[in-house]
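Action item from last week, closing it out:
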Amino acid sequence: MTSSDEPKQPAIEVTRKELEQFPAPVLERYEIALEKLSGRLADETCQQWATEGLEIARMTVRSWEAAAEFFDASVAVQRQLPSGQFLKWAKTGTSLCEDSPSLAVAYFKSSPKAMLRLRPRYIDDWANVCRALYRGTWKSSALSCRLFEATPDLLETLSFEEFCHFGEFLEILSRRSYDQ
């Protein structure tokens, strides 16, 4: 073990131990992703990724589902993004999980296909367009999640600017809902 491995290894192990308290899929997906990412990412980046996933899992009673999806999507997303933008993608998902774990689940699930059509600089904007539909109700959550899920298909025919206008249109329509 080299001196550069010493800070990383205990932190990775701490994350692993902490994840044991959540349902089995969280740790299983973490282990699978860690195995693949540890060879591709710098040690520090890998640790930041693991810490971000643990933070997601700890947020609420149901946020473990978002953490499982985060770990599941990470390998495919990392292939398409440089390290800095990969970590920014992770932090965006953490921010969404603060609003609602279901938003983060939809974001992480749709990310691998969305990243094929989305420029990395638009990740935050994409999340914000979809998040704008969320008002704390189950209907607004379902609408926001549906827009995340539809993003890869929508971006096949719409430019990102058109996608943003579509999101704004949906947001205006949703204001008229009795259950915003």
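Closing note: Residues 1-8 have pLDDT under 50 and may be disordered.
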